[in-house]
User: Fold this.
Amino acid sequence: MSKKNVEDYLTEGIYGTRLPKQQERDYFLGTLRERIVIALKIGQVMTDKGLLALEENMKNNKDAKLLFNGEIASKYLKAEKDLANKYNIPYTVVSNTEVDTDIGAVLTYDYAIDKENIFMEEETEKEPSSPSKDEDNKSTLFSKLKRLF
Assistant:
């Protein structure tokens, strides 16, 4: 191991001891990915599907804790907080203005569980296929030619 120099001691004194995987902790509201049951993006927290996914995971993981992003208005978190109270899951609102993250809520443990898929799957609705613009242009061109003859 290398010896600490004066700069290392000063940095440690000002900012505290460096934690391993600090970028990962910043992104996941202070926890590590290997501890997460489910992570919801900010937009997903405000939807009914996100609320249902969170409730389902709360039922199965009663010893977990819930972390919320402090940038989300509290009126959008009311239903999630009510769910946490219903299942006796402690929650914390994490406000870190120095870090920019798109994570809105995290259901996590204090130890590693190594769940492979932690993000809620987004279902995209399929739109009925509409004719392309080229086909529309061709049909209008042919219809104009028909009228001429």
Notes: Residues 133-148 form the longest helix (16 residues). Residues 124-135 have pLDDT under 50 and may be disordered. DSSP finds six helices and four strands in the chain. Residues 22-121 form a domain with the 60s Ribosomal Protein L30; Chain: A; fold (CATH 3.30.1330.30).
